[in-house]
Amino acid sequence: METETATNWLSDDEQCAWRTYLDVNRMLTYQMEKDLQPFGLTNNDYEILVNLSESADRRMRMSDLAAATLQSKSRLSHQITRMENAGLVRRENCESDRRGLFAVLTEHGTETMEKVAPHHVASVRRHFIDLLSGEALADLRESLAPVADHLRGHRGKI
Amino acid sequence: METETATNWLSDDEQCAWRTYLDVNRMLTYQMEKDLQPFGLTNNDYEILVNLSESADRRMRMSDLAAATLQSKSRLSHQITRMENAGLVRRENCESDRRGLFAVLTEHGTETMEKVAPHHVASVRRHFIDLLSGEALADLRESLAPVADHLRGHRGKI
DNA sequence: CCTAAGAAGTTGAATTCTGAACCAAGTGTG
DNA sequence: CACACTTGGTTCAGAATTCAACTTCTTAGG
Questions:
Q1: For residue B130, which of A36, A67, A125, B125 is within the disulfide window of CB 3.0 to 4.6 Å?
Q2: Sequence-separated (6 or more) residues with CB below 8 Å from residue A8
Q3: Which superkingdom (chains A, B) (predicted)?
C-alpha cells in the first residue's frame, strides 16, 4: 500500500512558464543593477530612496522601511548606515516613541533621487514595460496581484 | 530652448504592474528560500543541483554553469567549494582542455535532489503556479518570453 | 617554434548579508 | 506600581558576495 503521495510534477507548459519567469527575474535584476551603477547606487539603495521620497516628510520609521522593503531589521540598519555615510539619508529620533528612529532623506538624497529617477524609469521601460503590450501588462498585473496577496499573507510562515 | 528630453514617466497602470511584479519577485524568492531551508539548501544550491541533474553525466563545465546561472566565475567557484564541502558535488578535470573543470553531481547530491525536488515543486505550485489559471500562465509565458530574449541579448552591455 | 593574446578557474581582501544576542523603551496585567 | 512581555533598533560574529589580481593552459600570428 502506497502511503507516499505521488509528486504532482510541473507540466511542460508550467515548467516553461516558471523558468521564463525565473530567467526574466534574474536577468532583469541584473540589468537594473547595471543601469544604476553609473550613479553609484544599488537596487537596494534605490528602493530605499523611492520609499522615502514618497513618504510624508521624506521620512520613515526604520521598521516600516524594513517591512516595506522586506529586509531584516539588521540588514536595513547596515544599509542605512552606509547610505548615511554616503550622505543620502540621516537618522532622526522619534518624539512619540523614544525607542524609534526615522530614516530621513537628506537634501543630497533628494537631489540624487531627482537626478537618477528619469534614468531608472527609462531603464524599466527599455527592459520591461515597453516590451509588453498594454493588454499584456494589464493581464500581468491581474494575474500577479493574487500571487502577491497570497505571499503577503504568508510572511514568515512555513 | 529645452534640450533635455522630458521624462516618459510610468502611467498609473504601468507603475502598478511594475510594482506588483517587483513585489511578487521579492516575496517569492524569499518564500522559496524559506521552503528550502529545512533541507539545508539555498536557492542558489538548488539551482546548481537542477542544472547539473539535467545535464549529461550530471556534470557541467564551470563556465557553462556560471553562464547558465548568471553568476560570476568567482562566485560560482566559491559556491561549488561550499557544495563540495557539503558533499553535493565534486570537481573533476577535463581531458580535452586541461584548464577546465567539471562540476559533477555526487551520489549524495543526486539523492538530495531526488528528496528535495518534490517539496520544491510543491512549493512552486503552492506559491505561484496553482494561483494562476492555465490561460494566465500561457499568457505570462508569452509575454515574458520576449523580455527574456531581449535581456539575454543584452548581457553585459550598458 | 615562439610569443602575445585570450580563456578557464582560483584566490584573497574588502564589502555586504544573516542570525542571534543584546539594550532600551513601551505595554499590559494583577 | 512592579512584573513580565513585546517592540524598535543595533551590534557582533560568521557566511556569502564582489572585485581585482593571479596561474595555467590554449590558440593564433609571424
A1: B125
A2: B121, B122, B125
A3: Bacteria
Structure confidence at residue A103 (pLDDT): 98
Q: CA B127, CA B147: separation in Å to the nearest integer? A: 23
pLDDT at residue A68 greater than cutoff 60: yes
Residue closest to A36 by CA, chosen among A137, A113, A147, A105: A113
User: Looking at domain A29-147, which CATH architecture does it have?
Assistant: Orthogonal Bundle (1.10)
pLDDT of residue B156 exceeding 90, the answer is no
Cα nearest neighbour of A141 on chain B: B17
Place of cell 521598521: A63
Give the angle A95-A100-A104 at the CA atoms, nearest 5°. 85
Task: Record the cell numbers describing residue B71, joined without a space.
Answer: 553568476
Q: What positions of strand D are covered by protein, i.e. any atom < 7 Å from a CB?
A: 7-12, 16-21, 24-27
- The alpha carbon of A57 is separated from its chain's Cα centroid by a whole number of angstroms, namely 21
Nearest to A48 by CA among A68, A32, A34, A63: A68
Tens digit of each residue's pLDDT (9 = 90 or more) over A104-117: 999 999 999 999 99
CATH 3.30.200.20 fits domain B21-151: no
Nearest alpha carbon to residue A83 among A113, A38, A120: A113
Which nucleotide is closest to the Cα of B44 by its C1'?
D16
Q: How far apart are the C-alpha atoms of B110 and A146, rounded to whole Å?
A: 35
> Which of B26, B103, B122 lies closest to B65 in space, CA to CA?
B103
- As given in the structure block, the three cell numbers for residue B133 are 489559471
* Cell numbers describing residue B66: 556560471
Q: Which residues contact A147 (CB under 8 A, 6 or more apart)?
A: B24, B28, B127, B128, B131, B132
Phi and psi at residue B154, in whole multiples of 5°? Answer: -105, -5
